[in-house]
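Dear H.,

Thanks for agreeing to be a second pair of eyes. The structure we're designing against is below in token form, covering all 255 positions.
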């Protein structure tokens, strides 16, 4: 895990050192092609628990009505929708690397799914964020960092655009601490999820990548250390469903 934290860029499917372009091209291909099926894909890949984890994420998110929120890897807008519903901040900037994902989010806006909360969309690579230093109160990110080959660089970018004292709230698949639960979960990931996911959506490749990338991703402590290495402080996390998912909250130091 420590080795991974020091590595400049990784293959997000294996955790091994690799040029960033390899993972970036794969992620663009996967999310570009599943964008319209993504919400169904998400419900399957999180065993339907996604909504519960999202509610937990919202409870942990220190968002106030006067806040500007940046949603990183916002995809089809699920997290931004939950933020709008739970917290009604001043503004949400929903961003993602893949335009096709954001098109679905924009269609949700057209349907009024974000209520009265002002929201804008922008194609942004989290590893090189085109916004000013100290400009956001809270950053949300669900299932994003695992897909980024330059994780430390991405976290440093998030730190840069957060205001001092601002928070990063990160929901991600993680590692169940209980050995038996972990073994069952990894069996499910390896053998059942690509089969079941392929059956429901007609394409198992995204599910195979998902299963591999989850197994290769740092555990709760490893991700916490990576956040600290990027410069965050007060890093805490809470496990969901026995550690299958975790929500990390980390702060940008005040000075
Ligand atoms: C599993 S989806 C999560 C979407 C959304 N946060 C949700 O909870 O439904 C992962 C998203 O990360 C995006 N992504 C991957 N690499 C990224 C990067 N370097 N910068 C920004 N977004 C990225 C993908 O395009 C995809 O939309």
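And this is the sequence the design step returned. I haven't edited it by hand at all.
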């Amino acid at each position: 895990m420590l080795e991974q934290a020091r590595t400049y860029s990784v293959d997000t499917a294996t955790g091994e050192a690799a040029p960033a372009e390899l993972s970036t091209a794969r992620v663009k291909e996967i999310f570009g092609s599943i964008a319209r099926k993504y919400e169904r894909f998400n419900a399957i890949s999180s065993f339907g628990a996604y909504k519960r984890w999202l509610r937990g994420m919202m409870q942990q998110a220190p968002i106030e009505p006067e806040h500007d929120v940046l949603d990183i890897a916002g995809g089809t807008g699920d997290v931004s929708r939950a933020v709008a519903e739970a917290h009604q901040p001043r503004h949400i900037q929903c961003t993602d690397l893949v335009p096709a994902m954001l098109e679905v989010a924009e269609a949700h806006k057209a349907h009024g799914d974000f209520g009265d909360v002002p929201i804008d969309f922008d194609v942004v690579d989290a590893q090189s964020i085109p916004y000013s230093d100290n400009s956001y109160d809270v950053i949300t990110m669900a299932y994003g960092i695992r897909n980024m080959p330059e994780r430390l660089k991405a976290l440093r970018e998030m730190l840069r655009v957060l205001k001092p004292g601002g928070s990063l709230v990160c929901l991600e698949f993680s590692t169940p601490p209980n050995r038996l639960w972990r073994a069952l979960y990894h069996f499910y990931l390896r053998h059942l999820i690509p089969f079941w996911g392929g059956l429901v959506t007609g394409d198992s490749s995204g599910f195979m990548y998902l299963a591999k990338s989850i197994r290769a991703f740092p555990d709760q402590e490893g991700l916490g250390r990576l956040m600290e290495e990027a410069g965050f402080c007060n890093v805490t996390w809470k496990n969901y469903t026995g550690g299958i998912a975790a929500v990390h909250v980390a702060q940008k130091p005040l000075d």
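Two observations from my side: Residues 27, 31, 42, 73-76, 78-79, 96-98, 101, 125-127, 142-144, 147-148 surround S-adenosylmethionine (CB under 6 Å). The chain has one domain: 2-177+218-251.

Warmly,
E.
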